[in-house]
Write a structure and sequence with these properties.
Elements lengths: L5 E5 L4 E5 L4 E5 L7 E3 L10 E6 L2 E8 L6 E7 L3 E7 L3 E2 L5 E2 L3 E10 L3 E7 L9 E5 L4 E5 L6 E6 L3 H5 L4 E2 L4 E6 L9 H20 L2 E3 L4 H13 L31 E2 H13 L3 H14 L10 E2 L10 E2 L13 E2 L11 H15 L4 H21 L18 H20 L6 H18 L1 E2 L4 E2 L26 H14 E2 L2 E2 L14 E2 H13 L3 H12 L11 E2 L6 E2 L5 H15 L3 E3 L4 E6 L2 E6 L1
Helix pairs in contact: 3-13, 4-5, 4-6, 4-13, 6-7, 6-8, 7-8, 8-9, 11-12, 11-13
Length: 612
Amino acid sequence: MENLDYGIIGNCSTAALISKEGAIVWLCLPHFDSPSMFASILDPKIGGSFELTPQNLVSINQKYIPNTNILITNFVTETAVFDLIDFMPRYTYDEGGYHCPPDLIRFIRIRSGSPVIRFKYNPAMNYGASKTITRIHDSYAKSFSTDGIYESLYLYTNLDLKKVLATEPITLTEDSYFLLSYNEKLPNINLDFINLEYQLTRAYWMKWAARSTYPQTPYNKEVIRSLLVLKLLTFQPTGAILAAATTSLPESIGSQRNWDYRFCWIRDASMTISVLARMGHMNAARRFMHFILNIIPFKDEKIQIMYGIRGEKNLTEYILNHLSGYQGCVPVRIGNAAYNQKQNDIYGVLLDVINIFLRTFPCDSQTKESLWTVVRSLAKTVTSSWSEPDRGIWEYRSQIHHFTFSKLLCWMAMDRASSIASFLGKHNYIQLWNNTREQIRKEILEKGWSEQMRSFSQFYGSNYVDAANLLMEPYGFLSADDPRYISTVKKTEERLCKNGFMYRYRNDDDFGKPESSFTLCSFWMIAALFKIGEKEKARAMFDNLLSRSNHLGLFSEDIDFTTGRLLGNFPQAYSHLALIDTAILLYAKEPVTIPKTSDVMTFNNEQVTING
């Protein structure tokens, strides 16, 4: 059984997936949403990869350098031991700004012996659709496409390029490197250059982790790894946050639930920013708010549920018929047709984050005025549209209902809008918005409640449950001791929980009945059980869920109920932000800051001290 046993590296411009065996199986350049250069995860024959095969291999072990997004794959052969260190350069300049080029560095550090390795370097431009030619120049090999969609990739190394490209065995007698770049490099590329990029990148991630503040729990290691994943999924040029780094990894095998997640969902990103802000990363919160202001520049303009990472509004969906898909799962999609869906729930989360932002950060008058314009526009939209049906949080493609969760988030939208009006001294709006809020609340309690189930339903008039309704308590609609909430939690657990994992819902959607567990919903159930007093059950369920991460502590969107394998796009921001929230809820004792320690490390036979 194949699991998503991959590590992710990145630099907030793009990211790559590295297999447990050290192969690059996914890389888009120059940005997250660019066409792939390597995509063997979606088609092992034509997708392209960069692999290595040591002779007489005994074992492989993989881990991150603690508190970084630098991945080490350790190889032991019968005669040698070496590390493959994969990273994408990222650090700050002394004069300000970020160095995060479209580069990937693979450094091979020999620990003992002289390993003999074959390298398979096989880039495939444009998701493997373009014919790719590789030619050797004086100091690099250049791969390029020849069929009208021109792309190129440069490979620098201190090994024999002819042998590398011919997949001939090479005996390594000294440390070696590969640098892959979307651009032709201007500096002289050598081990000193690679060393400097490594040291500065490691220092950056360690310092970033050291700025994180969160309550002490037994799961601090998992919390910091999740924070590093969330940071890695931010897009440096705009502040947008991706839902995941991949496209078309299936929610369940053979279901056609294969989507492109390399975009910014307002709902996902807003929740992520809330976590990052509470963990001490205020700059990320500011940058995201500026992204929001930039994508809704006009009064009364319709806000979409999702945008491209540069604010693109048209995310037309295409199917790549030439790719066989992950484990044969088709279709492979790029773009996402859900961008034009009507989802009433997004306004509540967005207004909640604006409320937090205004109360947390000092803002100049221009920023406050811009945000106030956004608030009034969103409140007006909710007032006129909350009573209409929509496609809901789970993005049904052919069904429209009066989803209870969508109404809940409309309630939250008006509640937070009223709070913002109070904070900004705009008292003439408060009563008007409170009236709408109470009107929505009354309807939810009357029409969203199923007396037959003794639970809130997925949509008005149904007897289906929905895990999203577990958020009634954290969003402030009901208290944890409200009998209606307790009953909803228990009925949802009864109907949606299986082997300690949660369905989102179990009724038919566009592709039949869901088959896999939605990781986020499992965290929601754990939090709900804890809050209604079933603390030991919640902690046991939490431990069981964490045991299903991959070997590096990473989560995808879904988990197979029977086998426990990870499924869906990877790594998933939603899953990791929920892990952080849940760990703190269940185990928090007292706020702490990661110690700013000095770390002495050896690289290229030199000791370097990094001050965190």
